[in-house]
Design brief:
- By secondary structure, the protein is mainly beta.
- It is about 5% helix and about 45% strand.
- The strands form 8 sheets. Strands 23, 24, 25, 27, 29 and 30 form a 6-stranded mixed sheet that branches.
- The chain is globular and about 65 Å long.
Length: about 425
């Protein structure tokens, strides 16, 4: 089992898209490089809370949207880069995996209406008439400002085929000491009539919990192969911390504090929302709570168009613990903090108040979040340190199966299976 924090090495491949030397030497998936860019969303069209996952040649599209807090109209452009299961660029030229042009513009935009902070809201769709992926697999979306010739942000998405069938089940860990705190994902692959040569070398399975690739499990090997069926029912390699149900807050109405909101004030720049102080749940009994598995949804009360009418507000987080951690850092985690465990979501210790705190500029809506401890030495996130670990926790798991097709000289995404705890 490998828990890996991944960066995509770009090299000369990315320069073919016309981006200048202002582009970083390495591109990190799901990272925003410009402070004026906020609320980057990429999901299946018509399904706001979905993963950025579509079937090849199915007619499905991904909807991309983001806000520019500098306002005005800019010439944003994008391209896509085919990657392997580790999010490293494939050894392909763009024409080998892109049908149409190798880059496209983002032309649709709207200005915010009646907001304290003005912004421009941009939208685009993938695939479209000008740019379409030819192959299944992992893709890195890159968006840049054509005027400034600088990379603005990246987002990962996946294009899959149904070449193999995947059956899976989520259950408590098989180890007695972990049965109450960890969850095991057992799955098997049925290749049917699809030929898989040397599965120990050319087949790659990745398990992702709650769409967080930074805590995904990589490097799994088949446990047993019988005919066309490949079994991955390991005793230890497929195991995740159960964690806890996500915390949440709503900031849909600046005149009406929702649960978990302690105070709302209007300052010179915009509103400030102070959330109630959070406490550790590490030793509490598990309690069932509805959540959306770490996601967030933009929304505003009494608004038909929250994408352009929602306010940007400062949200103050605080976590009360008795003392600071000299050997670890504390992070806010959720899909609004991507990549996970980045400096933008790292909390600071307030000696006077004796708590960890962080202020983030967020768009109105409904948010899931949690607190994660990151030891300095190991660099492995500890979800249970603050939140507790429970085998009963409802989590969403996705199994991605990649196959290196020698005829294409790249890894394709041969199958995907999504499974929730308890169903």
């Amino acid at each position: 089992m490998k828990l890996m924090l991944l960066m995509v090495l770009t090299g000369g491949l990315l320069m073919t898209a016309g981006i200048s030397a202002a582009e970083p030497d390495t591109l990190i998936p799901d990272k925003i490089y410009r402070e004026n860019i906020k609320t980057v969303l990429l999901h299946r069209e018509g399904w706001d809370l979905s993963a950025p996952l579509i079937k090849l040649n199915s007619g499905e599209r991904l909807a991309l949207s983001f806000d520019d807090l500098e306002g005005g109209v800019k010439e944003y452009r994008f391209t896509i880069v085919h990657c392997n299961h580790l999010w490293e660029p494939s050894d392909l030229q763009p024409f080998e995996y892109i049908e149409g042009y190798t880059e496209d513009g983002i032309y649709e935009h709207e200005f915010s209406r009646n907001t304290v902070i003005d912004y421009t809201h941009y939208t685009a769709w993938i695939p479209n008439e000008d740019i379409r992926p030819k192959l299944s697999g992992n893709y890195l979306l890159k968006v840049w400002d054509n005027d400034a010739e600088e990379i603005c942000f990246t987002r990962r998405f996946m294009v899959f085929e149904e070449l193999v069938d995947i059956e899976g089940e989520v259950k408590p860990s098989a180890r007695i000491e972990e049965r109450k705190s960890r969850q095991k994902v057992e799955f098997s692959i049925d290749a049917g009539s699809y030929r898989i040569d040397n599965p120990y070398r050319n087949l790659f399975a990745v398990i992702v919990q709650n769409n967080c690739f930074e805590t995904a499990i990589y490097g799994l090997q088949p446990k047993m192969i019988v005919g066309n069926k490949i079994d991955y029912s390991h005793e230890e390699g497929n195991v995740f911390d159960g964690g806890n149900e996500y915390r949440n807050f709503e900031i849909r109405d600046m005149g009406l504090p929702f649960e978990r909101v302690e105070e709302i004030t209007l300052g010179q720049e915009t509103y400030t929302v102070k959330l109630a102080k959070d406490e550790s749940r590490a030793f509490r009994v598990y309690k069932t709570m509805d959540d959306i598995d770490g996601r967030f949804k933009i929304d505003k009360s009494r608004s038909e168009f929250p994408e352009t009418e929602a306010e940007y507000v400062y949200v103050e987080f605080s976590l009360g613990i008795p003392y600071p951690m000299a050997d670890a850092a504390m992070y806010i985690d959720g899909s609004f903090c991507r990549p996970a465990f980045c400096d933008d979501c790292k909390m600071e210790w307030n000696l006077k108040r004796k708590l960890y705190e962080k202020t983030l500029l967020l768009k109105q809506g409904y948010y899931n979040y949690r607190y994660v401890r990151m030891p300095i030495i190991t660099g492995e996130p500890e979800i249970g340190y603050i939140e507790g670990n429970h085998a009963e926790t409802e989590n969403e798991y996705t199994v991605y199966v990649y196959y290196f097709d020698i005829s294409l000289n790249c890894e394709i995404l041969a199958g995907v299976r999504q499974k929730n705890t308890g169903n």
